[in-house]
Design a protein that fits this description.
Layout lengths: L14 H5 L10 H16 L18 H23 L11 H8 L6 H21 L2 H4 L2 E4 L2 E4 H23 L4
């Protein structure tokens, strides 16, 4: 599998070009980035107290715990989409409202260590899934939320999405602690 070949335009929603793909450096292996990000997130947040992990950078924004749960939920959804498209699903997969998911997650009642451990387990599962795909499966295009999406695009959006949120944690949350 050549995971370093970037997805081509038309195989993903245009807004990924603005938000997530630029965060995956040219020539980088997204699988390696995913492995590194697991340790990076643990290093960034693992030493926080439970009270610190309840910090939100502004009223109405997610807490750090909710952010970790969002990363886990989104990874599960994107991995599911990748599985469906790789296996030839032809129906459009549903979208999701990340704010509604966060509100229902009850992340703030869980410990940060539980949330980080769950995130790590989901990441290991995602890595195993993406490593199982053949090159032809990576280039399959399906529909998610009525937008075209390839398995390869989903492989790239995962580290880009996480890099986006790690940046938000560094710039907006951690300075408050």
């Amino acid at each position: 599998m050549n995971s370093q070949t970037r997805p081509v335009s038309g195989q993903y929603p245009v807004y990924y070009d603005e938000s997530y793909y630029p965060r995956v450096p040219a020539g980088a292996d997204p699988l390696e980035l995913l492995e590194q990000q697991t340790a990076e997130l643990q290093q960034l947040l693992g030493g926080l107290s439970e009270q610190q992990a309840l910090t939100a950078y502004a009223p109405g924004k997610w807490s750090i715990k909710e952010m970790v749960q969002h990363l886990t939920d989104t990874e599960r959804i994107f991995a599911y989409r990748a599985l469906c498209v790789a296996r030839g699903e032809t129906q459009s997969l549903p979208g999701f409202d990340e704010n509604a998911y966060a509100a229902e997650s009850d992340a703030n009642s869980r410990t940060l260590s539980e949330l980080l451990a769950e995130n790590e387990m989901v990441r290991k599962s995602s890595l195993a899934l993406f490593r199982s795909f053949r090159p032809a499966q990576l280039d399959r295009v399906g529909l998610a939320n009525n937008n075209p999406i390839s398995v390869r695009a989903l492989l790239y959006v995962l580290p880009g999405h996480e890099a986006h949120h790690i940046n938000v944690l560094r710039e907006r949350y951690l300075p408050l602690l």
